[in-house]
Each structure stands twice: as structure tokens, then as C-alpha cells.
């Protein structure tokens, strides 16, 4: 161990040592110095930890422990060598796999979405209070029966019947405000819950290949009835911890770009696309704005009308405005019975139009956001019924209902050629909107609109009957004649 | 001339209201153009406007001549849609489309006032049937399809009428192979029409798919103060070339929404055009007096492509 005074070492190291402050120099003399090539290694006599001296800068300054020796702070290098091991990133496959595990499909080991260890606590919505009361009474009577041993079965049956009747009454006539609270229920099944229920095989794919894998959007390939589909959806969390990880299903621009990449990939290979909408809206944050949240949504909207595969969108929870529409431009729009689709959340709408957030119930009624109202407005094609009590009371039945309706529409769409399919998609959205024209307008109402000042030679601009509809009719005609001739 | 009018204005304070009234009458009769009078009366109920940026007092007549740009600091004040059409379209070449289309209260929406009442009041107050004017005209000799949104009508909100008029304009441009210029100014989607307004975003994007991607025609979007919400998230950001006016406020989520989500103050100039330009979201920032020339030069560049074999 050379206890050399540093300035005496060779020119290379001395040049670097001169950068060290004089106050530390005195301390450095007390520790061993081992010059090795490019940089010096200071070895403390105590416990063999290296403190490398890169170009004269001491990287770690330890505290003096009284004897003049510097005590190094614990570095991660040290942890890895001796003591406590840093935990490895948790993988979804078991650490030790038994040979039986490898027999079935290996895909199930790749999914990080495992069933929750504990069943979620039941949450009762405000309008379900009568049910809670009856449930409590049933519980009391049962306890009484157990403790006294007397037979209370008649009362129990009566109470149970009453419970079922009240439940049926409540859930068959839900108001829009009540449906909104069911759509936002914390235990409502999420996108992945439904996907794992309806698919036989599931492979989740990740990343936008441009910097981030947004956990708020789920993409992957699944197989139903022997056919592979591309699944894309917003994923909410099942508890608070998951919700924070998933950002409450509010995607960033990276999420939309991931969805677009997957949709273009699906169109390239021929996977029909099934999307699931369940988001309060796109994430409103500083970085989201800087990375182009508006542009990401706009690009998705435009590109979805050019994808040459069938697209079916199902709204499974709340559909929040542009953030939902960015994966919702489809051939068929389906909604679960208790889901909602709005242009602005009722709270935001109330704050802007009624000037107070307390008017949210009135806004909910006025905006017409529930599934039944949207079917009347010709926005939604079909409603998927939910079991009594909402989707959260029986997720499996909800998923099976959804599967039936989706496959029914998919079978129809799979028969179509790409060009008529695209034309039909454009036509579906082309007819949405309500306006009036041909009614004479008071000239005062047009005084700030520039009237025509072009000469008559320029002609009258006549829009030829929308070529969209022309192409659609033409393609449908050719498709039907082709079908008849092939038979 | 300007100095003496300013002196008059100051003296008016000294002499009281009656002479002030006389002053307005005197200058009003000197204005020959019918339109000028209406606009000057509409603007701040007087002949003077204040620049939002430097606080300078600006004589409205000269302000209009200078295309609503403050002489002192160059700040672009808001401009009505009629003025924008006159800024861009060659005189005596404008043909409007769908002038008589107006909104319908499909949801029977009623907050403090019913939607129907609001429409009539806005139409009366602004002299516009809805928040957009569409039509075709010559721009420096090239026939273009032009749509101009107006922030004065219900905050430029996009409803079924805006969606339908712009869609028809794009369909017309697709059929006649015209370049398209859309000038955007909007506060977002029209909440009174609910989910129908949302679907207008998809509707316009679908015809843009046919126009831009399938027919490979040129679409230039010009973003002005302010462009927010549904318009930014649909056709505003889909231009082949995106131009913004200096210091325009361009956002997806409004400032207040972001502050509520993050619970922190937003830095100034966060959603200004210059900031978006630095983040790579815009192609150009063009001042108003150069806009017409720049648009015609761009369309000239795109028309003279030599390898049009695809």
C-alpha cells in the first residue's frame, strides 16, 4: 500500500489530483492510494469499498468517523455485493415453473393482470340505501335464528322476496343520474376483466415505439371462436393503487399513438378491431399538452376512417369526450345499458353553463348521455343488457352478453368488402347532426356575413349528390351482384 | 388628424356628455361605408378600442385599416369572420355556401335560458347565423375553398351546423379539387347539443380522410386566438400545413382544467403559439399582414410538384 503523497505521482495523475480541494488532500493522505492507469482508486482501510476518483472529482464524500478515516456512504454497488439484495422487477411468470405448467398455453404466464388477492369491498351507491336496509334486516334475522335456534325461515323468505322486488323496481327504472353513478362505480368490471372473460387466448402487446408505454390504454390480440381480433381499450384500476398506476384511464398522447400503431398493425394483417371505451377523458397535464394531446386525438380520428378492417366500439363505462372518440370511430357503436357517453362531464358542463358545480344532476338530465337516449339520437347502434344490479354484481354474465352482441355484429361486418365498409363508416357519422335550412332567415341575422359578390359567370356552386353515398350505393350494388353471380 | 381627435377626446371629459355626443355624431356621419358604422358601434360601444397587450388606445377606424393589429406593439386583436374573408379573398370573387343553415334545439336543452333563445339572441347580436362562414373565392388568382370560424357567436362553439357546413365545404372541395383553408377560432364543442357536437369532430375528420389521404389534396389550417377543445382535437391539428397567428392561444384542455387537475399554477405563455412552435406542433407562425401572400405562395409550391406519378 503506497502511502504516497499525491503530488508525487506521475504527471497524468498529478494533473488530475490538482483538482482536488486542499482541505480534502490532508484526508486523502491517510488512506491508501493505488494509482491504476486512468484514475486513482482510494481504498479505505476499513471495508474495501472503492471510491473512484474520476478526473479529480471525488464522487462520494463520506463523514469522518473520528479516527480520520472517511466512512463511505452505502452505495448500491455495496448492497449488491454483500447484504440486502435489491429486489428484481416482478415478473408475471412464477419463479420456479413445474413441468405441468408448461403443458398448457404459455400465454397465460405473460399477462400481468392477475385476479385481485382480495375480493373488492362492496360499495353501495346512494340510491341503493333501501336495499342496504333490507339486507341488514335479513342479516339480523339470520343471526337471531342462529343464536336462538328457532326457525325464522318464513320471515327470511319474505324478506328475501321483498329484497328481490325492491331491487327489480330500482334497477328497471334508473334515472340518468343513477346510471351515471353506476357507470362510475368503483367495482365496475374493467376492460381487461371483460377481455379475459370473452377471449379463449389473450396476448397483451405494449409500447408506442416512441418513448413510453401508457398504462391507461390496453392493446393486444385475443381469440374468440377461433378468430383473432385486435383489442384496444381504456383500462381503469380495480383499486386505488391500480388507479394511480393506470392514471384513472386518462391517456396521454403516447397512449393514443400506441393505439394508432396497433390499429394500423391490425389493418395491415387483417385483424378486425374491437375497442372498449371507459375513460373520464384525455389527461389534461402540462406534458400531455406539450407532446400534442390535441394532435394525437385528431390523427386517430382521421386515420380510423381509413382502416380497411371492421371496427366495433363498445362503451363499457363512461365515454369522456375526445379522449373516448379517439378510439371510437367505428362501424358499429354498442353501449352497455348503464354506460354513458358525453361531450363534457356533467360537472364541467354545470360549472360552465349553470355557473355552479351543484347543478350537475340537472346537467346530467339535460345532456342526454345515457345509452337509451343516444340510441334515439341515432349515435348508438345497440344496447347490451346488464344483469339486474349493474355489471359489478355479475361481471361474467355482462361479458357473455357483450360477446353475443359483438359477435352478431362482427359476423355481418366480416361479409363486407373493404371499400363499402369504409363508405358505410363515413356514412354512419355523416348523418349525425341536427340543423335546419331552407327556412328564410331574417336579414338582420346575416348582416355580418359576407354576401356573394362574385359575377354570375362564376356560376352557382352546386354540390353533386354526396359522392360518399354514391360510392356506397355503387359498391353495395356490385357486392350484391357479385354475391348472386357466385351462387 | 389623429392628434386633433385625441385632443377632442380629452376635451370631452372637460366639457361633459353633450359635446361628447356631438362628437360621435360628427364623426359618424363622416363614415361613408354602412358596414364600417355598424362594426364601429359594435366594437366597445365607441370609436376607441384598447389593445389587450400594451393597453394603448386605438382609433377603431384606423385599427380596421391596419387589419386589427395594434400599431404600437404588433399584437393581433380579434377579427370578425367577415373581415377575415375580406383579408384573404380577392374582391368580387366570393361565393358563400349554406348561408341559411341554422341550429336546432334537438335535445330541448335549457340551462338558465333555453338553447333556442340563446341561438336567436346570438344571431341578433352578432349578425351571423352560426359560428362559421364557408364559401369559395379567388386568393391571388387561385380558386380556394375557405371556411372561417367566428369566436363572437357563442364563443365559436362547434355544433351540428358548424360540423355540417365545414363537411359540405370539404366535400365540395374534394369534388372540384380545390385547396382548402380553414381558419379556426373556437372555445370548444357546443355543450347544448350534447354528444351530437362530439360526433361532428369525427364527421369532419372522416371527410378529411377522403380529402387529404385518398385524394391527396392540400389543406392548410390557420389557428387564431383562441383555438381550444374539440377543434384542436379534430380539424385544427390535421392540416398538411398548420399556421398560427402570433401569440394565439392554442390548447386542448383549458388552463383552468389543467390547474384543477395538477393543483399547481401554470407558467405564462404555456399554451401560446410560440410555445407550441418550440414543441414542434406547428409549421409556421405568420403575422396577419403576410397571411394572404404566404397562403398563395404555399399553394403555388404544392401545385408545382414535378413527380406526381403516385
Automatic annotation (TrEMBL), chain A:
> For bias kind Basic and acidic residues, which ranges apply?
85-98
Give the first-level EC class, as a single word.
transferase
Assigned GO CC terms: acetyl-CoA carboxylase complex
User: In its UniProt record, which GO terms are filed under biological process?
Assistant: fatty acid biosynthetic process
Q: What is its EC number?
A: 2.1.3.15
UniProt cross-references to PROSITE patterns, sorted A to Z: COA_CT_CTER (PS50989)
Q: Which reaction does it catalyse?
A: N(6)-carboxybiotinyl-L-lysyl-[protein] + acetyl-CoA = N(6)-biotinyl-L-lysyl-[protein] + malonyl-CoA
Domain (CoA carboxyltransferase C-terminal) ranges: 158-412
Alphabetically list the UniProt keywords: ATP-binding, Fatty acid biosynthesis, Fatty acid metabolism, Lipid biosynthesis, Lipid metabolism, Nucleotide-binding, Transferase
**Single annotated GO MF:** carboxyl- or carbamoyltransferase activity
Q: For the region Disordered, what residue ranges are annotated?
A: 77-98
InterPro entries named among the record's database cross-references:
Acetyl_CoA_COase_a_su (IPR001095), ClpP/crotonase-like_dom_sf (IPR029045), COA_CT_C (IPR011763)
Pathway where it operates: Lipid metabolism; malonyl-CoA biosynthesis; malonyl-CoA from acetyl-CoA: step 1/1
Known PANTHER family for this protein? ACETYL-COENZYME A CARBOXYLASE CARBOXYL TRANSFERASE SUBUNIT ALPHA, ACETYL-COENZYME A CARBOXYLASE CARBOXYL TRANSFERASE SUBUNIT ALPHA, CHLOROPLASTIC
Cite the NCBIfam families for this sequence: accA, AccA_sub, PRK05724.1
Q: What is this protein called?
A: acetyl-CoA carboxytransferase
Amino acid at each position: 500500500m503506497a502511502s504516497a503523497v499525491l503530488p508525487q505521482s506521475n504527471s497524468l495523475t498529478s494533473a488530475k489530483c490538482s483538482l482536488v480541494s486542499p482541505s480534502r488532500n490532508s484526508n486523502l493522505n491517510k488512506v491508501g492510494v493505488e494509482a491504476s492507469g486512468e484514475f486513482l482508486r482510494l481504498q479505505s482501510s476499513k471495508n474495501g469499498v472503492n471510491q473512484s476518483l474520476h478526473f479529480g472529482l471525488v464522487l462520494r464524500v463520506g463523514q469522518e468517523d473520528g479516527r480520520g478515516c472517511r466512512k463511505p456512504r452505502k452505495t448500491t454497488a455495496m448492497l449488491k455485493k454483500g447484504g440486502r439484495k435489491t429486489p428484481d422487477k416482478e415478473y408475471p411468470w412464477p419463479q420456479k415453473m413445474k413441468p405441468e405448467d408448461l403443458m398448457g398455453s404459455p400465454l397465460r404466464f405473460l399477462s400481468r393482470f392477475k385476479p385481485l388477492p382480495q375480493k373488492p369491498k362492496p360499495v353501495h351507491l346512494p340510491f341503493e340505501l333501501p336495499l342496504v336496509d333490507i339486507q341488514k334486516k335479513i342479516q339480523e334475522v339470520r343471526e337471531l335464528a342462529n343464536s336462538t335456534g328457532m326457525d325464522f325461515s318464513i320471515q327470511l323468505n319474505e324478506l328475501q322476496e321483498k329484497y328481490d322486488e325492491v331491487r327489480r323496481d330500482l334497477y328497471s327504472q334508473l334515472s340518468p343520474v343513477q346510471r351515471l353513478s353506476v357507470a362510475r362505480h368503483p367495482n365496475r368490471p374493467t376492460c381487461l376483466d371483460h377481455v379475459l372473460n370473452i377471449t379463449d387466448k389473450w396476448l397483451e402487446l405494449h409500447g408506442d415505439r416512441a418513448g413510453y408505454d401508457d398504462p391507461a390504454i390496453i392493446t393486444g390480440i385475443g381469440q374468440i371462436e377461433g378468430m383473432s381480433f385486435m383489442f384496444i381499450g381504456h383500462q381503469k384500476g380495480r383499486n386505488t393503487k391500480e388507479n394511480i398506476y393506470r392514471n384513472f384511464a386518462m391517456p396521454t398522447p403516447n397512449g393514443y399513438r400506441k393505439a394508432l400503431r396497433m390499429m394500423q398493425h391490425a389493418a395491415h394483417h387483417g385483424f378486425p378491431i374491437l375497442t372498449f371505451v371507459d375513460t373520464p377523458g384525455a389527461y389534461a397535464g402540462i406534458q400531455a399538452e406539450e407532446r400534442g394531446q390535441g394532435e394525437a386525438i385528431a390523427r386517430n380520428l382521421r386515420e380510423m376512417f381509413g382502416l380497411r378492417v371492421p371496427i366495433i366500439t363498445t362503451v363499457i363505462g363512461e365515454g369522456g369526450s375526445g379522449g373516448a372518440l379517439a378510439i371510437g370511430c367505428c362501424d358499429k357503436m354498442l353501449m352497455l345499458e348503464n354506460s354513458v357517453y358525453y361531450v363534457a362531464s356533467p360537472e364541467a358542463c354545470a360549472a360552465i353553463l349553470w355557473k355552479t358545480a351543484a347543478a350537475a344532476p340537472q346537467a346530467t338530465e339535460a345532456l342526454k348521455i345515457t345509452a337509451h337516449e343516444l340510441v334515439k339520437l341515432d349515435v348508438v347502434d345497440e344496447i347490451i343488457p346488464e344483469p339486474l344490479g349493474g355489471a359489478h354484481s355479475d361481471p361474467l354474465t355482462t361479458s357473455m352478453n357483450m360477446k353475443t352482441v359483438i359477435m352478431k355484429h362482427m359476423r355481418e361486418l366480416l361479409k363486407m368488402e373493404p371499400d363499402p365498409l369504409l363508405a358505410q363508416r363515413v356514412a354512419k357519422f355523416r348523418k349525425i347532426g341536427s340543423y335546419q335550412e331552407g327556412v328564410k332567415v331574417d336579414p338582420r341575422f346575416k348582416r355580418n356575413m359576407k354576401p356573394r359578390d362574385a359575377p354570375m359567370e362564376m356560376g352557382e356552386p352546386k354540390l353533386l349528390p354526396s359522392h360518399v353515398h354514391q360510392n356506397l350505393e355503387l359498391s353495395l350494388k356490385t357486392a350484391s351482384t357479385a354475391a348472386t353471380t357466385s351462387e | 388628424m389623429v392628434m386633433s381627435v385625441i385632443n377632442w377626446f380629452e376635451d370631452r371629459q372637460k366639457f361633459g356628455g353633450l359635446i361628447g355626443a356631438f362628437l360621435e355624431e360628427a364623426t359618424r356621419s363622416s363614415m361613408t361605408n354602412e358596414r364600417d358604422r355598424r362594426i364601429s358601434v359594435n366594437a366597445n360601444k365607441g370609436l376607441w378600442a384598447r389593445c389587450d397587450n400594451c393597453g394603448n388606445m386605438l382609433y377603431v377606424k384606423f385599427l380596421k385599416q391596419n387589419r386589427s393589429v395594434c400599431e404600437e406593439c404588433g399584437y393581433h386583436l380579434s377579427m370578425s369572420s367577415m373581415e377575415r374573408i375580406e383579408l384573404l379573398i380577392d374582391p368580387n370573387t366570393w361565393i358563400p355556401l349554406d348561408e341559411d343553415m341554422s341550429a336546432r334545439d334537438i335535445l330541448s336543452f335549457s340551462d338558465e335560458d333555453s338553447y333556442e333563445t340563446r341561438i336567436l339572441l346570438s344571431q341578433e347580436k352578432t349578425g351571423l347565423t352560426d359560428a362559421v362562414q364557408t364559401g369559395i373565392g379567388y386568393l391571388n388568382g387561385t380558386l380556394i375553398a375557405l371556411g372561417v370560424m367566428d369566436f363572437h357567436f357563442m364563443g365559436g362553439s362547434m355544433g351540428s351546423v358548424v360540423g355540417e357546413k365545414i363537411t359540405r365545404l370539404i366535400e365540395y372541395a374534394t369534388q372540384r379539387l380545390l385547396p382548402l383553408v380553414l381558419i379556426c377560432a373556437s372555445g370548444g364543442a357546443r355543450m347544448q347539443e350534447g354528444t351530437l357536437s362530439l360526433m361532428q369532430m369525427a364527421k369532419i375528420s372522416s371527410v378529411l380522410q377522403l380529402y387529404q389521404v385518398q385524394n391527396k389534396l392540400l389543406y392548410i389550417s390557420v389557428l387564431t386566438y383562441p383555438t381550444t377543445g374539440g377543434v384542436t382535437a379534430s380539424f385544427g391539428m390535421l392540416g398538411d400545413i398548420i399556421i398560427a397567428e402570433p401569440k394565439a392561444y392554442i390548447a386542448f384542455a383549458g388552463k383552468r382544467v389543467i390547474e384543477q387537475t395538477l393543483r399547481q399554477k401554470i407558467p405564462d405563455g404555456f399554451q401560446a403559439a410560440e410555445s407550441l412552435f418550440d414543441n414542434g406542433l406547428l409549421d409556421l407562425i405568420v403575422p396577419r399582414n403576410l397571411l394572404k401572400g404566404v397562403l398563395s405562395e404555399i399553394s403555388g409550391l404544392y401545385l408545382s410538384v414535378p413527380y406526381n406519378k403516385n
